[in-house]
Amino acid sequence: MDITLTQTTNRQWVGLIEEYLQNDDPIINVHRDDKRKFDAIFVGGGAGGRFGSGYLRAMGGRQLIVDRWPFLGGSCPHQACVPHHLFSEAARELDLMRWFSGKLWFPDATNLRASILQVVQLFKSGRSSAHAFMNWQSKEQLDLEYILNAPATVIDNHTVEVAGERFQTDNLVLGTGAATVLPAIPGIELRGVYDYATFIENLDFEPQRCVVIGGSKTGIEYGSFFQAAGCPTTIVARKPLMRTSSLHHVDEDLRTYVIDGMRKRGIQVLEGCEPVAIQDDDHGNVKAVVIRDMQAGSKQTLRCDFVFVATGERPRSEHYREVLGVAVGEKGEILVDKHMRTSVPNVYAIGDLIGPPMEMFKARKGGVTAARNIMGEEYELDWTDYPDFLHSTYEISWVGLSEEEARQRYDNVVIIQMPPKGVPLADVPLPCAEGTMLYAMVYPELSGFLKAVVDGDSRRVLGFHHVGFGAKDAFQYLDHLMRQPGGITIDEMGNMNELFLNPEHFIQLCRLRAGSLNLRDL
Ligand code: FAD
Ligand code: COM
Hints:
The protein is α/β, with parallel strands linked by helices. Helix content is 31%, strand content 22%.
């Protein structure tokens, strides 16, 4: 179908996307009357491809996006970030109901069971409206050209074939993302084993007992949701949770608060263990996972009907290695410089395809970086440091150095912490604000945790760490402030205007110490 000359509304897009998810016909939006060559073809219209295209177009260039799905936006709105946030919100609500069971206006939740299948179906029934908006905005507002519902085949560094037609371009931007590599263990093919994508697409029963394999962000987030829904969950991880190589700057006190909190809610966390087999119930369904303690060597059988694999994703780079000969790293990630240039002239790569961190900011800014360089600007992206977050039943955010990292690098580290060091969590209903007020009144130990790490000599804040709700957005701006020349000092923090009760409390706590010439812990 060629939609180039039609104006399709958001509502019409919803119908079209649902129809085209069931067929292989391409959706074409190409300005045939424009005789200019493409400055870039973006292979993959996920976060990276869409933002790169938007920027290139805004700079006056001509682009084309090709995506195998009938919508733009990629895995984020289809199977990844958006459902993750829905599940995490459900987890938070359910957790609250459990703690407050029979108290105040809360009904008795002793036998509370939320249907995981129903929440997945809820997401699937709603996701097309987000997809529709991406298509609509990209065409009607950003003036982007695209071909959807058609896989791209790269012929060479200037040619892409799609839906039987070849398109020429000055540059290629590869952004086809990453996919789970399932661990090679017996039974991995059984019914009842899912990763984040197949969980959305294929779940067709109500899980009763879950084993999560892998301690990634996704493992913690989805495991917390399953447990909160009433499906007893075990997380099996080789490394301690939140100590995986893909997470940096995790503060040990924050980690302890989060993982202890997960255990308190009934999740069984088995660290230092690996799965060795998934057992069959003789009908092709999962019956149990056999795990091995990596130190002791002992084995344990965990009964379950549902296995969620959260061991992380690998870049989808095979096609480009074969056809273009792009250089890749150990895990298949396409190697790029700070301009997002690969080893092959005129070929750029972005997003999850270039490896970790597999986060939206890097995908989108990578696309923009490629676009700017293609359009003649010298522009570099440094993605080595960034604010980060994940969910348990809490929202957990951090930026900058952990306390341990700071102590390795600075002589005079000062800690501002709530509850303060050495004070039992249950004695202090702080921090508290949005989302934790009820906890503060009834279960003070559940109302969250925060820490600011300060260099006592320069007075610069080196790190911020927070567990609670409602503070995540602040970390985007704290990151920016910390990157200013000279960073941000405790004095400047104390001079800000808080919107009290503020979930992160950082401003007022800094202010309480800012008068001291010699800073001390708080
Ligand atoms: P993708 O969005 O995966 O896009 C790749 C596109 O390429 C897809 O649209 C695909 O259809 C297309 N494609 C593939 N092959 C072809 C082909 N041959 N021809 C044409 N098109 C093709 N990040 C965050 O910042 N915040 C979060 O909360 C968050 N939550 C997450 C939760 C989960 C469960 C997971 C797995 C990831 C999460 N992420 C999150 C990471 C985030 O989703 C990714 O970093 C981001 O989507 C990567 O964007 P991308 O453009 O590189 O790839
Ligand atoms: C967001 C998708 S869910 S995109 O980054 O706006 O394309």
